[in-house]
Amino acid sequence: MTTAPILKIEDLRTYFYSRSKQAFIRSVDGVSLEIAKGETLGVVGESGSGKSVTALSILGLISVGPGVISGKIGFHSDRIQKDLLQDLGDFVKLTTRAGKVMEVTKDVVGWERNTERVMSKVRGKEIAMTFQNPKSSLNPFTSVGKQITEAIRLHTAMKIEREAKERALTWLDRVKIDSPRLRFDNYPYGLSGGMCQRAMIAVALASEPSLLIADEPTTGLDATIQSKIVDLLVELKSELGITTMLISHDISIISRLSESVAVMYGGTVFEYGPAKHILSAGFESKHPYTSALLASIPSAQNIREKGYLPAIEGDVLDTINIPEGCRFYSRCNQVTEKIREKCARQEPDLRQIESGHKVRCWLYFD
Amino acid sequence: MKFSAIRPIALVLSRELVITVLLLLGVSFVVFIILFASPGDPFSVLLEGQLSTAEAKAGLRDAMGVPRSWYVQYLAWLAGMLSGNFGTSIRMGLPVLPEVLRVGFSTLILTIGSLIITLLIAVPIALYSALRGTNKISWPLTMSSYVISALPVFWLGYIVIYFFTHKLGLFPIAFGFSSAGQKYRWLYQLLPIFVLGVGNGTISEVIRYLRQEMGRVMAEDYIRTARAKGASVWKHAFKEGLLIPVTEIIASKIPFILGGAVIVEQVFNWPGMGRMAWQAAQDRDYPVIMGIAILAAFFVRMGSLFQRVVYVALNPRASKE
Amino acid sequence: MKKYYQISGQISEFSDLPFWKKADVVDLVYVGYGLLIVALVVVSYILGSVNLLPRDPQDIDLQLIMAPPGTAGRLLGTDFMGRDILSRLIVGIQAYFLPGLLAILIALCFGTGFGVLVGYRSEKFDTGITYFTNLVDSFPRLVLILLVIAAFKPDIYYIMLVVGLTNVPVVASLVKGKIQFLKQKNFIEADIALGLPTRIIIFRHILWHHCRSLLIIQATLGMAEAILIETSLSYLGFGVQEPTPSWGNMVQSGANYFMQGKFWPSTAPALAILFTILAFHLLGDGLNNILEDKRST
Amino acid sequence: MKRILVVLLLIVATIVAASMTAAAGRKKDNKPDGGSLSYGEYGRPATLDPITSNEMISLRITELIFNGLVGINEKQEIVPELAERWDCSADGRTYTFFLRKDVTWHPREGEEPKPFTAEDVVFTYKIMMHPKTITPLKVRYEFISAVEKLDDYAVKFTLKRPILNALAKFSFKVIPKHGPRNPLYLSRDDPFVQNPIGTGPYILKNITAEREIILNANDNYFKGRPHIDKLIAKPFADQNIMTQGLMFNAIDMIVLVNPRDLPEIQGDKRFILQPYNALSYSFFGYNVRNPLLADKRVRKAFTHAVNRQEMLDSFFNGQGTIISGPFAPGSWAYNLDVQPLSFDPEKARALLQEAGFSRGVDGFMQKDGKRLAFSLKVPIEKESEAVKRVVLAFKNYLKNIGADINVEFKEWQSWKEDVFFEHDFDIIFAIWVFDDSADISSLFHSGEIGAWKNNFGGYSNPEVDGLINESKLTLDHEKRRTINRKLHVILAEENPYTFLWTLTNYAAYHKKVRRVAIHPYKFFSYADDWFMEEKDQK
Questions:
Q1: Which chains have 3 or more CB–CB distances shorter than 8 Å to chain A?
Q2: What is the ipTM of this complex?
Q3: Where in the sequence is the domain holding A76, given as residue range(s)?
Q4: Are residues A54 and A97 in the same domain?
Q5: Are B229 and A59 inside 8 Å of each other by CB?
Q6: CATH no. for residue B288?
Q7: What is the pTM of this model?
Q8: DSSP string covering C117-143
Q9: Which residues in chain A have their CB less than 8 angstroms from residue B247's CB?
Q10: pLDDT tens per residue across span B75-107
């Protein structure tokens, strides 16, 4: 089922700047992704691999400079078709050396204004987002119910308070919050973490967006709640068939929910393709990083085969010093003498190795 | 407002009121101790212009039914006050309560007025520089507000008066209230308020505080959520970023501004508490001083009460704490 | 237009810039200005104490009363006793120097003390200290000072004592607030869990790491307030007393002639006050931003 | 400037018994009625009645509201007021006053004006002397033994002993019997003290919220209705602002202009500066309990050291006269033959050396190890430039002759305790105010040494004591005069004080106010004759 992608990210770069080191933190460094209508894209990767930043960049929520500096984010819903980063070039000047961005001049204020203008029709209405640590992400000064109602009145046809409230109640009910009428007037501090997550999902979905970005929906919740939340997501997915970008470092969740998967590392996508290919342990051709990742999941199979849980050696790549070659080179355990040179010198690009399956590794092309 | 919201407020109210009473007791006691420790007494003021021998004073005490030992005196005063009788001014012979209330009222106008001025100046600057950071608009504004709030208030008053008399030929601006029937009366009354509002030396602090709070709130997660769902950031930041800090400022600055009022009332001939306190402190006119101290403390407490109530009303968590 | 740049391709792990490189220019200017004025103050303090002055500040000249600036070598003119304003201006700072420090010291010591007690071991001390701070808060500063002066004597040290005391609640509440914030974020619990000794937690982590900028600001504000209060009191006649010069009583005595169009005797000290207070404010702002790494994006 | 007010005998040169009665109603001088005059006061009056009030501002107001049995005219003569005539027994122990029959009290609203009768006079005396009444007047009237009402319009006062010029003392203000709520004694919580009624030219209308005191002309004032319809007393808390008030027509008159503002007002054609004798003199008083100051040569040296003329010129625009003795110049008691000591630092140093002082290492004089250093205590006030100037200059002058003066400003109350009770001071700067002085017994008589007595310096000199006692006993005016001249000579030589000067006070008023005569310290005694031309009344 491949239709025109609802979201098409091309070569997105979102940098931050460390004043103390006088260096760029290349959190997102050339990410390209696609999300097809109706499908769920799982974005997986260790923390610091730039998953969340990518998500925030999509919604234009990066407020510290320089922020987004290049790329395209094509958005195609039934209502809106536009590049969410339109005329970014007018605001940013880049100076590169050896393919590395060394200097950024950006009219931050102007760009912010521009973003507000571009996103005004998009945020909430088209793309909704849920964040990690839900407790602090809900406004502590207004009741949960009100926050849902607000979303409804902002983005749906229902402008009348009462209707909206009714609708909000149904949403509370849908996200499995028991006795919605009571909870409606509760303030976030009164709710448990799980509850808050559900509430936030309700807030996000209430505005009936065409794309939902769920950023680490389960982190910070204890195991039982986690699975419950995942169940909820699965159920909602089947009910609403809403397009979702699911961000998590937890492969098990990704594998349960998503059709296609993007594996991110050090600010780029290493592997992108259908979930069934990438995440099934048996499948052969895949990026060393992915396999390492899979190997490190506590699953019965792994234990049986190896008798221990292999961890990925080395540290997570620090995005200040991006090596010239493959970003994973220093930690890669499948480098062959044949390609070692390339791996060290030159960064591979994301190539199609078969229909809908792209990998960024020298192993698969020469 | 829902009952659930009213109950905590009621609780806070009652609690604060109890505290207020205790504090007023404390204030009166401290003031009394200081007064008692100070040399001279009201009677020597009455006896000015005659040989005020110790006997004469003692005679006076008895004549005026003032107990000799200080604690009896205090208790007597306390009892009187609790029965709503603040005694009579030793110098003026007038009953204290109406007098103090009268001046208290005019001082209250001055205080509240100047608070409003202060906020009118500080809030926009603070918000602007909180959102836009230091730039070519916010910087000069901030600087200039710092500058005026660093001027000695009475000198500022003199400047204003000089300007309005010698330059604009508008007089008597120096009369605050007692400009009865004058043209521009409202102006004469506005000026002291303005001068105090600008010159009470708190603007810079207010700006700094508001800016920090707003900045902090703007970085909160829930504001990001608000932006993500396309709601107005203002609407969400308003309560924690503006309302609460402002009320805190109002509460905490009242003592300062009451202090500044002492000066401004002298310069602008404003018939207020400050002047009376100043006079009474020199006359050792203890019923008056006590009355004023109590009233002033009461104002301060009302300020913080207001702040508490607003805080609780806005922040459901507070009532649980 | 904001400019970000990176010089070398490789950044070593430990290459941390010193604060003056990473700080915002504005802040550096603020702090620079602040320090400049403070330096001036110190210098004039020294000049005064070794009395290396253009003239003897006490030297009365009844033939030169209220002489305008520049007359007979008086750079800033003379006051109502024909004394050289410049010299008095230089000596005038001494009136605040130590007393102001006293006020600040009191405010900070007791303030932090109480703040820590309430914030860190609230259950025990809360009510008592809260009552005390509220009590102090309930007095209008100036009225309280008037009373105290009337009771004892119009001595700048008494005044500053009161100023210090009245600032205790402010500092206390700030520190308390900070600590409670840290508690919310579970920093303190973490420290305790790490088994750090309490004094380290309080002094190093709480006070040094999280409260220093706030304390610095309070200190600078304290100095500024000390000067303003003394000035106000001088207007009421209760400030630093003649013949000792203070900026406050100089403004006051000069202001008597303001309406007659003789501005200089009051303007000179008033400006001195203005610039000094401004300096303290900016110093506070700048240091705060630098220490807290504000602005740095 | 705060003053220590000693109320002493009022003695006048001549006595005119001729009664001049003017019918109530309009004045016969066909000057226009109308207009209103607002004058600025520095501070607020405490009470408005003549008995409990004890400071200048109230004194001035009571002068407008009340009358005495006798009055003083501009030539310092005693003239009839409430009493149209009187006679005095041969032994001078009984005085009988025959009261005017056409005098009525100010009506309280809704009441008919009540007539003024002997009852009221008796009542006033009784209430004044009542032990529970707090009034500075009491001491002045202890010489009276009894008062009785002969008929409705005649009162008889019996004196303990005949005293000189007793008559003048009967200028005390009479208050109505139906005035005070408490008929026995008058305390400050009696409503009457804030809302008095009298017989005087002006009726207290009300006190506004701004504490302006508004007085209306008394249409049936027995000397004829005053010309100016309305007097308004505006309280000020800042003298600079008060002067601005005058300059910019917020007020028409300032009763006492700050010397510093004289030039500004002088330069302005719209205003008239009218001098009037302050009946007060400034001085530095020495505490002779201090062994160093006990030596009269030291005191004399100090007097020589200060350049009084220079101070007078540079601080008070030369508006005043330097004095040599304890009497107000111009009073009959003042001895013009005694010249003020010259300004002569050389002589001063010589005197000090003669007294055994020699210049020490620190440049200051000293005698067997004791530095010539003193504390000069001065009360603090908000408006105190003049005081500061004088004491600072004094310090400077004495530095020149090698005396070290440490100026110590003290809050008013504690200053009084130090000076009059603890006697803990070396030198003070103060001002004596008299209603018209001649009796200095309380200032220099050794019997007056002690707590809360006026001889704070502890000066005692048998010769002076003798003379004072003598003058107290005598009834002969001339004799007393010679005694006082002697006293003057002695004190000028002894220098228990360094007598400085008596200042000329200035009232400033808009020139639309005509025929302004001012009584030295009661100020408004002749206000009923002031008037404004129609065109100025606006």
A1: B, C
A2: 0.83
A3: 7-126+212-222+241-364
A4: yes
A5: no
A6: 1.10.3720.10
A7: 0.85
A8: HHHHSHHHHHHHHHHHHHHHHHS-HHH
A9: none
A10: 888 888 888 888 888 888 888 898 899 889 989
